[in-house]
Amino acid sequence: MSATAPVRHLLGVEDLAPREIVQYLDTAEVFFEVSRRKVRKVPTLRGKTVINLFYEASTRTRTSFEIAGKRLSADVVNISVSTSSVTKGECLLDTVKNLEAMRPDVIVLRHPASGAPNFVTQHTRAGVVNAGDGTHEHPTQALLDAFTVRRAKGRIADLVITIAGDIAHSRVARSDAMLFTALGARVRLCAPRTLLPVGIERYGVEVHDDLPRAVEGADVVMMLRIQRERLTEALIPTTREYSRKFGLNARMLARAKPDAIVMHPGPMNRGVEIDPEVADGPRSVILDQVEAGVAVRMAVLYLLAGEAGQSPLS
Ligand code: NCD
User: Fold this and answer.
1) What distance in Å separates the CA atoms of residue 96 and residue 116, rounded to the nearest whole number?
2) Which of 33, 122, 146, 213 falls between 20 and 30 A from 262, CA-CA?
3) Residue 221, exposed/middle/buried by CB under 10 A (0-12, 13-18, 19+)?
């Protein structure tokens, strides 16, 4: 397998054909194997520069992009906005123009404004990766979730995948729903009515406001946290009541298939949307998702910044 013409940007799942999704997942398999070697480094992106530009908090996504770039031998620069000139009032456009002058090959951007990565593509020659934009998309999270499901279940088509939590504010829910649907899964989205966006059915998903029914017979149960930083009004009752109705505990999980897996993109609010006994239990693949994150991001960086015809490992 080798890169054909390098892909320009990864802005959202919405732009991806099923064939391209499978190319990302298959390429990630190659890098997953690299990440389990004794020497976890390949020369693929030697001489290339990756800038991680994060305007929002992140643990997993930022770290795994950094590790992914380093395992590919790229030079990786991390800009955390709290220590950059953004605190002195510099706007996104000026920041990008200045970074562009340093000739990066890839800019990985996380930003609170939906659409910010699309905007950045107009001001740089670098490939742009959306690492989460507002409530819009988080394509690499969807790819790593699909990678995890495919490894655990051997396929994605025809699986019943329940995604429950703050659907309205979750870019993960949007990207995952589109990606799993594109690969032939049956996606159920579940949230209190106040956290279900209008028109969500257009993604070809089943919509629920009752967790027991949404979990019934599922192959995969993915829980999401309440995005408190994006709530503008009181959309949920007390945390306790939310947890009682929409939290995943062992009793609730018993409604799913006996071999159902449990997922969470993190960060988890233990005891709110998910019980520790489930999060740390035998059905949880939550840390497998994190491991997959490095391999998937290596695949993304390689497909964006690798030379045409270059193989993934050299
Ligand atoms: C998510 C995000 O930032 O969108 N986290 C992640 O990248 N794994 C989900 C969240 O913040 O709840």
Assistant:
1) 11
2) 33
3) buried
Q: How far is the CA of 311 from the centre of ligand 1 (A)?
A: 31
Does residue 75 contact residue 48 with C-beta atoms inside 8 Å? Answer: yes
How many angstroms is it from 291 CA to the middle of ligand 1?
Answer: 15
Instruction: State residue 149's pLDDT score.
Output: 99
Question: Which helix (DSSP H) or strand (DSSP E) does residue 141 occupy?
Answer: helix 139-153
**The dihedral sign for the CA sequence 243, 245, 251, 257:** negative
Query: Residue 3's pLDDT band (boundaries 50, 70, 90)?
Result: low
CB 137 within 8 A of CB 203: no
- pTM of the entire predicted model: 0.96
Q: pLDDT tens-digit profile of 40-73?
A: 999 999 999 999 999 999 999 999 999 999 999 9
Query: What amino acid occupies position 219?
Result: D
